[in-house]
Amino acid sequence: MPSVREASFELFRERGMTTMFGNPGSTELPMLADFPSDFRYVLALQEAVVVGMADGYAQASGQATVANLHTAPGVGNAMGAIFNAQANHSPVLVTAGQQVRAQMTLQANLTNRDAIRMPHPLVKWSYEPARPEDVPLALAHGAHLAELPPRGPVFLSLPMDDWYAEVDEADAAAAIERQVDGRALADPEAVRALAAALDAAANPVLVAGPDIDASGAWDLGIALAERQRLPVWASPATGGNRLGFPEGHPNFRGVLPPAIGPVAQTLEAHDLIVVVGSSVFPYYPHIPGRLLPENAKLVAITSDPDEAVRAPMGDAIVADVKLTLEALLAAVPESSRPVPEPNQQPGEIPPTDPLNPSTVHTALGEVLPEDGIVVLESPTSTLALRNQLRISRPGSYYFAAGGGLGFGLAASVGVQLAQPDRPVVCVLGEGSAQYAISAFWSAVAYRTPVTFLVLQNQEYGILKWFAEAEGVSGAPGLDLPKLDVASVAEGYGIKAHRVADRDGVAGALAGALASSQPELVEVPVAPGMALF
Ligand SMILES: Cc1ncc(C[n+]2csc(CCOP(=O)(O)OP(=O)(O)O)c2C)c(N)n1
């Protein structure tokens, strides 16, 4: 009879889950014993980095991905990253070791006392199998559930002696073979009604969200906008872990602001707002106002029932985003509305010393190859990067929808491992880099040739902006003088470049992008928010 470990690895193998991320402790070693040679174990040096890397890998590969943590303290360290994975709709299968069953009741050292409750609100399912022989079935359950819509992390606590138990061969084979398909078709009546409303509207608009990309519906979003002559806004950047529409497309208008009043103001002229693959809306901060322009209707298409029901206004269709766009496209005619005016390109940025973040992003835009991927965590320059780069290919942008810092650096390594043939640039604020700093080690150890671009403005710039917006003065702890990320990265074995002028930035980035090793480019930039 196979062991729990053999059956579990056969399950992972069958599902293509052969890259796993972890930080081992004594309670995880039995799982890793005789580690099969067709699997890849990616070591991260802290658990938030384990989950951040697995999140990036899961999103960029589209597959459930194992993040193996060390019992209670490891889960504790990873909690912020699990929060991000949930907001990102990322199918991470989080596992954590547990004391041997014989010592759990007496709560021997390292017992995860209430393992199921610990990550509970952040995951779709939290479980500790009732019997050792149930572990493969529980892992199958977790993998299916993580990948079913709405995708998201699940958690399993696995007692360390379970891996040696034996399982019935036929039962294990049955658990391993199962496929569960969860792509739901929309009610054809709801689609017909939306198609009729779109065609009848005087001035409809499309709001494109991250699940367009995640569901593989990129081309369908473009086709709908073109056939119906729709101007397109990106859903607010705060919730945009991926892009839903090419930002260089002539119909693209910009990124919606993330607050109630400004969203309604931005969409003022429109009578029908169709939101696809986004919550309605990932608001922050609180700027009250009308939820919608007067007389405007809103219809959202989302695969997430929770996103659908918690929206404060409008109607929703809960179904697979790609299948629904396919059906909608088949039901709408070519519109006779005028084609939206081509969007304006960003203007020239006046030279400054130190460089404006926007100037750095123009330099990045010049050297980033067509198939480049950007992983972004540089709060004051998020909008500047979107405006300057106008990223226009699917699967080319990743961001923490949850807003928990530490995603960017870790996720970029996972994204690069999942997409080894595409150049990955990770754009970081020097403050953000600290939350997952040890991911530099993994980047070097696994030869992931990420180009890290660090903007050094010597402050928590976005918090100064928030302080002003909130009318807060005199808050301590918002300055970061002399934080030298390049030197820290060098300590982890990364080749680092320090450049301060525009041509130097472009040259260093081009060199780093062409290199087969991870490299870092650190640039001092002017403080404050960069919008364009
Ligand atoms: C885990 C976590 N802790 C704290 C914060 C609050 N926070 C948001 S942005 C920010 C500052 C980021 O600084 P930096 O990366 O240097 O970028 P800048 O704002 O200067 O562009 C902080 C501390 C957060 N979002 N997540």
Verbal overview:
This protein has 532 residues and is α/β, with parallel strands linked by helices. The protein contains 19 helices and 18 strands. It has helices at residues 4-14, 29-32, 47-61, 71-87, 135-147, 169-177, 188-200, 210-214, 218-227, 260-266, 305-310, 321-331, 357-367, 382-389, 407-418, 439-445, 461-469, 485-491, 502-514, and strands at residues 19-22, 40-43, 65-69, 92-98, 126-127, 154-159, 204-208, 232-234, 252-255, 272-276, 297-302, 315-318, 373-377, 397-399, 424-429, 451-456, 495-498, 519-524. A six-stranded parallel sheet has the order 2-1-3-4-6-5. Helix 1 (4-14) runs parallel beside helix 6, helix 7 crosses helix 12 and helix 13 packs across helix 19. The longest helix has 17 residues, at 71-87. The mean pLDDT is 97.
Topology:
Layout: H1 4-14, E1 19-22, H2 29-32, E2 40-43, H3 47-61, E3 65-69, H4 71-87, E4 92-98, E5 126-127, H5 135-147, E6 154-159, H6 169-177, H7 188-200, E7 204-208, H8 210-214, H9 218-227, E8 232-234, E9 252-255, H10 260-266, E10 272-276, E11 297-302, H11 305-310, E12 315-318, H12 321-331, H13 357-367, E13 373-377, H14 382-389, E14 397-399, H15 407-418, E15 424-429, H16 439-445, E16 451-456, H17 461-469, H18 485-491, E17 495-498, H19 502-514, E18 519-524
Parallel strand pairs: 1-2, 1-3, 3-4, 4-6, 5-6, 7-8, 7-10, 8-9, 10-11, 11-12, 13-14, 13-15, 15-16, 16-18, 17-18
The structure holds thiamine diphosphate.
